[in-house]
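Side project, low priority. Logging it here so it doesn't get lost.
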Amino acid sequence: MEIKVLGTGCANCRTTVQLIEAVAKERGVAVTLEKVEAVQDIRQYGVMRTPAVVVEGKVVHAGGIPARDAIAGWLAA
């Protein structure tokens, strides 16, 4: 499963990456996690607030740290 975290490197962005890694490990789901920090690349997704999360090419979250339950739902889909 390909997941991208969009953000310029703020604390919330780093926490989001760590949280996704932890939930994926707990669930036994293999993920390819990419951090996208270039503003021009983030804009291509139409995201106005970060951190944002893209799962398999679709923006599923923007603004703030996502909840563990939300992450688990993305991984189950």
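Brief comment: The chain has a mean pLDDT of 96.
Revisit when time allows.
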